Amino acid sequence: PGALDERRREAALYQSLLAADPNDSKAKEGRSVAQFRSAQLQLEMGSASQAVSMATRSFEGIRALQAQDPSNRLWQEIAIKAANTRAEALMMAGDWDGARQANEWALNSANKLVSLDRTVANWRTDCVLPARWMQIAISDGMKNAPAGRVLAANFARDFAWSKDGKPSEDERFAWIMVDVLNGMHWRSIGDLGRAEASFARAASRLPSNGITDARLLAVAQYLNRSQQLPGLPQVAPAMASRVRYDVGALLNSQRG
Fold first, then answer.
1. What is the pLDDT of residue 196?
2. N or C: which terminus of the chain carries fewer CB neighbours within 10 A?
């Protein structure tokens, strides 16, 4: 795929710069970003084990760089994003304990970063929000549903759904996953009314048309296939065939 090839070329370029100057911190920074972006693309293609490996390389590289300057906030942000991507990949690969450890580090670090300057909205939406929905998914994945429901309630308390209808794709996906995780739980204990309400809320958060984000496409496909909810955006077959993001792997522990 073109996007992944582009990221690989980018990482190779930074690697060649490092071959010329092993102390080039900007090249190390760029390589880590290219690596976690590559891992995200691998997840979209359904290659969880490859994504784990790539995200781990990104995380380890940026952490080594952080050791030189722990106060560098950009490097802190990159490390959190790499850890979030690694946690997501570990969940999809079925390594719930590894995902829990990666998520714990990411969430603690994201909260510390936000506390340094609460005016930087992107730290909250791009670092904390992904870690929070994954914390819920991991709790459910490790068979601790009561804790998962408390975490889901806290999520709804601490964050506000975009009233202008223009949330970022990451924000949209986080909210949808919390709704779907809640729906799966309520369905698993036979509370079909609550389950249907949760799935309907998830569907209402999808854009009405023009879905291009692979994860949103995957969750729309999941809801279309498993819930038969009215009014869901249809995913064109040509587009659907390219989506390999495995929503089911994130919900596997709750199927029933």
1. 92
2. C
Q: Under 8 Å CB-to-CB from 98, ≥6 apart: which residues?
A: 90
- Report percent pLDDT > 90 for the chain: 65
Q: Which two tokens stand for residue 208?
A: 């009405």
* Segment among 21-25, 131-135, 236-240 with least mean pLDDT: 236-240
Helix (H, G, I), strand (E, B) or coil at 167: coil
Distance, CA of 238 to CA of 83 (rounded, Å):
32
DSSP 8-state secondary structure symbol assigned to residue 162? -
The two structure tokens encoding residue 22: 């092993």
Identify the burial level of 25 via C-beta atoms within 10 angstroms of its C-beta, where 0-12 means exposed, 13-18 middle and 19 or more buried: middle
Could you give the CA distance from residue 234 to residue 133 in angstroms, rounded to a whole number? Answer: 25
* Predicted confidence (pLDDT) per residue in 241-254, tens digit: 667 888 988 886 55
CB count in 10 Å sphere of residue 236: 9
Q: Contacts for 200-204 with beta carbons within 8 Å, 24 or more apart?
A: 200/229, 202/175, 202/176, 203/227, 203/229, 203/231, 203/232
Query: pLDDT tens digit string along 141-180?
Result: 999 988 999 999 999 999 988 767 688 888 999 999 999 9
DSSP 20-85: H-TT-HHHHHHHHHHHHHHHHHHHHTT-HHHHHHHHHHHHHHHHHHHTT-TT-HHHHHHHHHHHHH
Bigger pLDDT: 239 or 188? 188
